[in-house]
Amino acid sequence: MRLPSRFFRAAVLLVMLLLPAAALADDSPPPPDTTVTARGTGADSRAALLDAKRAAVEAGAGVLIQSETEVRNFTVERDKILSRTMGAIRSFTVVSEKKTDDGVTEVTISAVVSLADINREMAALRILFETMEKPRVMVLVEENIGGGRSAVFQTEFVKKLLEYGFNMVDTATVAALMDRGDAMVRRALAGDLASAVMVGTQNGAEVIIIGKVTASRGPEVYGMTSGQADVTLSAISCSTGQVLASGTAHGAAVHVNLDAALADAVKKAAARIMELKKEGKYFTSFFDTLVAAWQNMANNGQAIAVTVENVRDFKTASAVKSALENAGPDVVSVVQRSYQKPRASFEVTWKGPADYLAQSLDGKELPGLGTLKVSALTAGAITLEVSAPDPCPPQPPPAPAPAPAQ
Q: What is the pTM of this model?
């Protein structure tokens, strides 16, 4: 099976990102360091210097990005890339520092920037957009502020995902579901994975993020009311029910008005769950964990749920499993999950999107038992049917009679 060149490029980039530099077969030298002049402003010298360093990294990234798409993607991910690549500055010298007429400090630096370090981050960004294929994401969060249902966290969180380029289920659809408050939505919000998968699937999502936000009044701070907020999230694959990422965050804020303090605390929690946080000696975030799960799928294969209808007997189920195992070199493994006539279900670990696997299976013959036909397809699930074998298969033409002896 031939995969599209874009998927091949993504796979190559992923290997380049994950393998140690010494293991790469590419003999081309890494991008060299470059010297840039950058200017930053801030309330004081320290803030202005930090802004100048970020500008230096951004200038270095500008040397590497070429296409309009890369420029646009860098603009979307700018803060994330800059925060991760501050270490790309090898050295710097302060060229000048002054106070402007409006009291702002302005610092100009000459910095030596490692293009190799920035390039690694840009490669990761390109992989992100190539391999995730913008799965449709649904966010379903239970949140209450001041005794009533709110959508402060939902709004902030979805806005951030949209900035990253995710394809989102319409927030109006989610709001209508929450207003109806049906039993399946309540079970999903309570943490029932099967219900969450069902809700996501019914609304066309490949991933559903469920969670809960709690907000409470805190102690007074200098005569002002404080608000505390805690959020818990889980991202679930709607095709396999696998938890792809989970995370928690806390936010606190003060305001003269309690409702405003609670809302601000929730907004801070929404921002922090997407930020880097320390776990042991490593730094990660909910977003990074979700991205890593997708990158792992691209590298090691993703689980695709395959349901097969019209399976007449166990012999046919076994033949289907064999057909799945031989669907192509990108099949990693096949596990039969169930068989109850006339249906069998399998989990296929496959290196590529589900539609490529579907193309390999559609029309595949099960000798003497029928033919596989694709009847339904989503990003992470395929439904097949076994057609009945032809009762009168075409017979080869009879061999010509031997010529009479002369």
A: 0.57
